[in-house]
Structures are given as C-alpha cells and as structure tokens.
Design a protein that fits this description.
Elements: E1 3-6, E2 27-32, E3 38-43
Parallel strand pairs: 1-3
Antiparallel strand pairs: 2-3
The protein binds zinc ion.
C-alpha cells in the first residue's frame, strides 16, 4: 500500500506530506490501481480558497 499526496501549488502554508495530520485537514481517498491494489490519495486543501488539484490544469 502506498500513499500519494495531492498538494496545492504555492499555497500560503507548508503542508505535511507524510501522514494525515496536516493542518489543512486533508481528505483521504482510496484509488484503485491498474493491478487491483488500493492506493490512498491524501488530498490537501488550499487555504486561499482554491480547490485545484495538481495535473488538472494541463489542458
Ligand atoms: Zn495540507
């Protein structure tokens, strides 16, 4: 099992990218991998109001 963190870019605060005790109150989300394993994604909340995830502004 592995955990991935989705962090807001250039946020006002420093996020903890280990564990789920970050000050922003991140949300844990299970994501099924291609091989059937469950990976946990920890989605951090930006404190400046954005709810933009990394990788979604490419197109
Ligand atoms: Zn955070």
């Amino acid at each position: 099992m592995s955990t991935m963190h989705v962090l807001p870019i250039n946020d006002l605060i420093e996020h903890e990218d280990a564990g789920t005790s970050c000050v922003c109150g991140p949300t844990e989300r299970p994501v099924k991998a291609d091989d059937g394993a469950i990976n946990w994604v920890v989605v951090h909340n930006s404190l400046d109001g954005r709810e933009k995830e990394e990788g979604q502004d490419a197109h």
